[in-house]
Amino acid sequence: MTSYMDLRREMAADIRAEREAALDLLGGPAASVRAVVAELLENRTFAYPLGVLPLMVHAAETGEPGPALPLAVVSDLWWTSACYLDDLADGQAASAAGNLDESEALLATLIGGTMLPLLVVGSPRVPEAARAPLSAEVVRCWVSGTEGQLRDLRADIRDATRDAVVAAYLGKSGAPFSMVTAMAARLAGRGDERVELWREFGNVFGILWQLFNDQQDILTGRNEDLANGTVTYLLACALENTAPDARDAALRLHTEARHSAEAREAFTAVLLAPDVLRQYEEDIFRFRDRAHGLLDKLGGDPAHLVLLHDLVDQASPMLLHPREAVAGALRAGD
User: Of 208, 327, 308, nearest to 270 (Cα)?
Assistant: First the structure.
């Protein structure tokens, strides 16, 4: 194996079987519940199947990914539910849940994202001593993830800083990744010190992955972050780089970008200014180096550590390139 995708292909059948076993935990009398959760899962596919992360962490600790299969299912359940809720907030839920209507999908999200993961980690597939700690991780993740999402929803662009955005990212992406890395270490029988190091790795990886997603939003032309008024890390870099006498113009242009394709194009040029991207790239590489440093400190099975290092590198490229700014877009007083 040379990448996490190779591990995902190797373990695909086992992950599928584990998912079916998880759905069966809902019980015979809850056939409708099982059906809607299964529909939600089937309709959500991920271009980057990061549910293998807990398998990699467990294998780094023990050489064996298999015992962490329930955690791969927990990861997929969490992300499927969280992504649907995010689509709902962005007004895209109608196309995000297959044949389910909005009410059915919300119920599926409630069960699939919270109750079913608790059933999974409390099942006989998990050693009894690990069940309570893993259940606590699920709850902790939802609390932290919700905190991050609320920070995101309530963010005021006038107060945007890189540190404030990182705090939101630690909830939005750091929480679910640190949940499964900490869980995998705990399942491997490791003590608190190593569990917390793996949690820290998950948090840093979550920041990197959010930065990767933010870049993809621009590169694909979706520009959903601008349309939704999301305060991203790149936006914070741009505002910190904006001259004081041009700040009001930048804020107005950002507001207009929510409803105007022309304004979005102009503000994208502001985001892609060379000085902004220089800071952005430096910070990406700083987070990348921190993630690699944590893996070096943790050590473990060499073959699976290589996969984890490779995953960090795949999550931390600098993909954006400078773009010539629209003339006069940020003239003070415009």
Answer: 327
Decide if 327 is inside a domain: no
Query: What is the predicted pLDDT for the residue at 91?
Result: 67
Expressed as residue numbers, the domain containing 206 is: 4-315
Q: In which band, very low, low, confident or very high, does the pLDDT at 95 lie, cut at 50, 70 and 90?
A: low
- Decide which of 248 and 27 is more confident: 248
In this prediction, residue 158 carries a pLDDT of: 87
How far separated are the first and last CA of the chain, in Å rounded?
55
Task: Please calculate the CA angle 284-178-158 and round it to the nearest 5 degrees.
Answer: 50
pTM of the full structure: 0.93
Whole-angstrom distance, CA of residue 113 vs CA of residue 142: 9
Has residue 42 been placed in a domain? yes
Tally of structural domains, the chain = 1
Q: Which of 44, 39, 192 is nearest to 107 (CA)?
A: 39
Q: CATH number of the domain at 188, please.
A: 1.10.600.10
Does the residue 322 lie in any domain? Answer: no
Q: CB count, 10 Å around CB of 219?
A: 11
pLDDT of residue 46: 87
For 67, 70, 136, the CA distances from 124, given in Å and listed in that order, are: 12, 11, 17
Least Cα distance to 50 among 249, 205, 271 occurs for: 205
**Within a domain: 164:** yes
Higher pLDDT, 135 or 228: 135
